[in-house]
């Protein structure tokens, strides 16, 4: 009950979470349909499409390359210029690729969609969460921060459930009305989202353009270097970075091929995809909104993280070794627990960082995850195509998912080595050397 006594905290969270819910609903409405849309456009009349799988792998690789730089920079810019402008940029990029599919679902428009969606992913994928987590850290006291992050991730799951319900029952041609929700999200943030960070002062406008540009690049480099030093010098943040790297290496690879694997192996379509995603979403709402806030004060983030990673290993193995069409539904049920990896990770990063470095550290760890997103499709895409083809070395269509589970198991080992209660260890010397704001005079 003490949580709701501070009306200011609740109001600030509502102005963040309400538009994000609409954004997540809109994106989830399209997820289960895109597999059918891309397969029908690129490989008409076929249940599997190598071109679509390779395009998804290529997209993930390109996104991973650029996210390694973009994510840390966006996190640092949110520390300097505020959370609101960066959130507005990231949430609005999704509008343009989906607009193309409203116009036409032909092959040429699907290719154009992939190009714009790749740019959108570079800017928004991962950055929305790390900037939103930094916003939560700005407005909530330390002792309630984990609960706030749990609510954010719980509403994320609730939005996914509602998005999948709409995808399940709406006709395919009408699903892309989700663009209306995406536009509403951007407008709401522009009008109502308050700023929680004092913007950096504008530098000397009389500087020549080239010198000003060079100064921006130089200060961005120094800021990124500082973020790297903060993480490397902290045993807790360094361990969390390794956990995030191996976890994302396995799970991003699974996410990139899972729906195409289920379509090829079991003939799943939009309806089955929506049902599986709803199984995960409904359980995730309960685990994040009710279970996690209740057990976190008792067991701590480390125990929750280890349990979630163990569940992720089982999740990957069951999908990879699925022998019947009902097994993916059983595997999806483990998502109720493994969804807790993200809020536990965000909370651990937040606790191990100073108040002035929230955006930097969240962005740096997100950049580490981007490296994993770059590497995973290089192995997962050809491996998945090989075992789905007639030339597979042996009969195990989900062998690539089994391999991904090994990476998740490595992250579990690092999580077990993590200290139970990592805390901010910023020294006085670090406080004195906090970087000057970007473009300060």
TrEMBL record:
GO terms assigned for molecular function: transmembrane transporter activity
Segments crossing the lipid bilayer: 86-104, 110-137, 149-169, 175-193, 227-247, 276-296, 303-323, 361-379, 399-418
Family matches, as Gene3D superfamilies: MFS general substrate transporter like domains
Protein origin, superkingdom: Eukaryota
Membrane topology field: Multi-pass membrane protein
Keyword Phosphoprotein: no
A Pfam family per the record: MFS_1
A Gene Ontology term for the protein's cellular component: membrane
Localization per record: Membrane
Keyword vocabulary terms for this entry: Membrane, Signal, Transmembrane, Transmembrane helix, Transport
Leader sequence segment: 1-28
First-listed, main subcellular location of the protein, grouped into a coarse class: membrane
Family of the protein in this entry: Belongs to the major facilitator superfamily. Phosphate:H(+) symporter (TC 2.A.1.9) family.
PANTHER family the record matches: MAJOR FACILITATOR SUPERFAMILY DOMAIN-CONTAINING PROTEIN 10, OS11G0151500 PROTEIN
The protein's name in its UniProt record: DH200=94 genomic scaffold, scaffold_1268
């Amino acid at each position: 009950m003490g949580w709701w006594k501070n009306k200011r905290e609740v109001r600030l969270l509502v102005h963040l979470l309400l538009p994000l819910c609409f954004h997540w609903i809109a994106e989830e409405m399209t997820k289960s349909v895109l597999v059918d849309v891309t397969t029908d456009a690129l490989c008409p009349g076929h249940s599997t499409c190598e071109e679509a799988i390779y395009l998804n792998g290529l997209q993930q690789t390109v996104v991973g390359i650029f996210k390694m730089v973009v994510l840390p920079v966006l996190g640092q810019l949110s520390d300097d210029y505020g959370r609101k402008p960066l959130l507005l940029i990231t949430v609005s990029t999704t509008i343009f690729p989906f607009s193309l599919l409203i116009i036409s679902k032909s092959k040429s428009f699907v290719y154009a969609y992939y190009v714009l969606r790749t740019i959108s992913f570079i800017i928004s994928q991962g950055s929305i969460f790390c900037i939103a987590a930094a916003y939560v850290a700005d407005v909530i006291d330390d002792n309630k921060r984990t609960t706030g992050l749990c609510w954010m991730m719980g509403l994320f799951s609730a939005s996914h459930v509602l998005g999948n319900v709409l995808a399940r029952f709406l006709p395919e041609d009408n699903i892309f009305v989700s663009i209306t929700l995406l536009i509403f999200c951007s407008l709401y943030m522009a009008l109502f989202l308050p700023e929680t960070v004092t913007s950096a002062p504008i530098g000397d406008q009389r500087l020549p353009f080239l010198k000003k540009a060079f100064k921006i690049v130089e200060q961005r480099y120094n800021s990124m270097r500082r973020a790297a030093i903060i993480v490397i010098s902290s045993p807790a943040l360094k361990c969390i970075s390794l956990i995030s790297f191996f976890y994302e290496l396995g799970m991003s690879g699974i996410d990139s091929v899972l729906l195409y694997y289920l379509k090829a192996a079991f003939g799943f379509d939009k309806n089955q995809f929506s049902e599986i995603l709803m199984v995960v979403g409904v359980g995730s709402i309960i685990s994040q909104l009710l279970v996690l806030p209740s057990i976190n004060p008792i067991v701590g983030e480390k125990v929750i993280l280890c349990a979630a990673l163990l569940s992720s290993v089982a999740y990957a193995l069951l999908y990879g070794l699925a022998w019947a069409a009902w097994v993916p539904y059983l595997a999806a049920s483990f998502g109720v627990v493994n969804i807790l990896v993200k809020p536990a990770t965000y909370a651990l990063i937040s606790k191990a960082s100073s108040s002035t470095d929230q955006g930097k550290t969240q962005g740096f760890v997100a950049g580490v995850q981007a490296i994993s997103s770059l590497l995973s499709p290089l192995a997962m895409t050809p491996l998945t195509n090989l075992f789905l083809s007639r030339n597979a070395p042996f009969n195990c269509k989900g062998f690539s998912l089994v391999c991904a589970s090994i990476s998740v198991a490595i992250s579990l080992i690092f999580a077990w080595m993590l200290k139970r209660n990592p805390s901010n260890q910023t020294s006085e010397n670090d406080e004195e050397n906090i970087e000057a704001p970007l473009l300060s005079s």
